[in-house]
Amino acid sequence: MEFEKMPTVPTADEILDRSFRRAAKKMKEKTNKERANQEFVRAVGAAIHDRLVYIIRGFPEFDDIPPFYREMADILYGLDRIRQSLGAVGWAAKHTKMVGNQLVLQSRKTDDTLVVRKRAVARLASMVHQIDKDLHFLNEVRNVLRQLPHVEDTFTVVIAGYPNVGKSSFIRRVSSAEPEVASYPFTTKGIIVGHRMMGREKIQFVDTPGILDRPAEERNQIERQALSAMMNVASVVLFILDPSEHCGYPMVVQLNLLEEVKGMVTVPVIVVANKSDLVAPEEYQTMATADGTGVEEVLAGILTHKPERVEGKKIVDIRSPVALESGESDSEESAGIGLDGKPVKKPKPKRARKPRTRKE
Cα–Cα distance between 106 and 102 in angstroms, integer? Predict the structure, then answer.
């Protein structure tokens, strides 16, 4: 997953404490007092710079990661805000090193290097504390993004619909995921991923939070996560309806949302009516996730959209990748392959006979 290797982002005080301890060790290596103070200033600036650069490099290039993860980061925190905080850390990294070098030069021109050392500590600490809020924010981003589920590049069924229609109950029936199931809406607060082995192949199921039929600008973070999953990772969308309306939403708004989803995605949309133990409409395939009735039939219908795995012999081109020399024909026969597909021996070229010289 794109965010697993992101390191913990320390606070300003943690960065300064570590940098001062590192500089103190460097200082002890100098026997000359004046040189020791100069080395302390240089080492503090370098240590702060290195730590801040390490933080920046720990974050991925968001333009290069898969669209689903990029959109999730944007939904949760906003890419512009993340980049702004990373830019602030970059500013601090550049200036702490620059100021550290300037103060080292000043210490070489003064008789009291201790004064310059104290000034350096104050200035460097001030710059690092200016970005303390950005450091706290980036650490929060790191902690949340690392918890995003790993969505594999495989056949993926995204389950959608209004809150409390039975999406989480279905995914618990058919996959390894164990989402919270309750009788109140909006139980699912984020994306949940489960898997199921079908023979030797893995099917991925993504349980999404409930979506409401309302304008896009009014949808919250939870609903936008569901839409992102449907648009970026779905191979098939399973849209679940609740004709009994025990979910708290009338069928008319559920059908309005269904039409919107169909217009947003380019993958097949399978429509299933849940809670058939209460209401079983004839126009839709039905199931009851409460007792499992019809669930296997729904799963079988989903699998009809899965592309079959091609089995067979691999055709290997045995021709040499080396470019043919000038004058050779790029034909099967010249490449050592006969018209029947079998290798043929290429006749050896005859040696030119040397002309006989007539003895005098």
Answer: 6
Query: Helix (H, G, I), strand (E, B), or coil: what is residue 197?
Result: strand
SS3 348: coil
Q: What is the pTM of this model?
A: 0.68
d(CA 37, CA 45): 13
Q: Among residues 6, 296, 267, which one has the least CA distance to residue 156?
A: 267
156 sits in which H/E element:
strand 156-161
| Domains with residue ranges and CATH for the chain | 12-145 (1.20.120.1190), 156-303 (3.40.50.300)
For residue 145, is it left (φ>0), alpha (ψ between -120 and 50) or beta?
alpha
Q: What is the pLDDT of residues 117-126, one digit of tens each?
A: 777 788 888 9
Q: What is the dihedral of CA 107, 113, 118, 123, to 10 degrees?
A: 0
- Angstrom distances, CA of residue 122 to CA of 105, 115, 128, 174, 244: 17, 11, 10, 60, 68
